[in-house]
Amino acid sequence: MCTMISKTIPIKGSAKESEGWFDINTINISYDHPFKADLGYAINLDIPNQSSDKFSRIILELSPQSASTLIEGLQQVLASGHALDSHSGDSSQKRGLH
């Protein structure tokens, strides 16, 4: 049975696919059955390429534990980056990171 647990989040960044880089402004996150990964349920990250006439996307299917590990890693790297910014006097706003 599908969980229907999903969220669309606005983001700012870029992603790379086989044809090159594209701007991203949305990520779709769901907790549901994956299409490919051999998991009962997965955290599915769907990053659509909305800047192209041709529809394409990048999709990640992560085990819930892997998704938690990814979140922890992201938080650690962000904390280190924020600490570096505060020590160097450089703000993330100056570099467009917000």
Description:
With 98 residues, this protein is of the alpha+beta class. It has two domains: 1-62, no CATH class; 65-98. Helix content is 26%, strand content 42%. It is built from one helix and four strands. It has one helix at residues 64-88, and strands spanning 5-17, 20-32, 42-49, 56-62. The chain has a four-stranded antiparallel β-sheet with strand order 1-2-3-4. A hairpin with a 6-residue loop joins strand 3 and strand 4. The termini are far apart.
Note the main attributes of this structure.
42% strand; four-stranded antiparallel beta sheet; 98 residues; alpha+beta; globular; 1 helix
Number of domains: 2
Radius of gyration: 16 Å
End-to-end separation in angstroms reads 37 Å
Number of helices: 1
Regions with little confidence, pLDDT below 50 for 5+ residues = none
What would you call the structural class? alpha+beta
Order of helices and strands: EEEEH
User: Looking at the chains present, what oligomeric state does this protein adopt?
Assistant: single chain
Strand content: 35-45%
Strand order of the biggest β-sheet: 1-2-3-4
Helix content: 25-40%
Mean pLDDT: 89
Number of strands: 4
Largest sheet: 4 strands, antiparallel
What's the overall geometry?
Answer: globular
Annotate the secondary structure layout.
Blueprint: E1 5-17, E2 20-32, E3 42-49, E4 56-62, H1 64-88
Antiparallel strand pairs: 1-2, 2-3, 3-4
Put the structure in a nutshell.
This protein is an alpha+beta fold and 98 residues long.
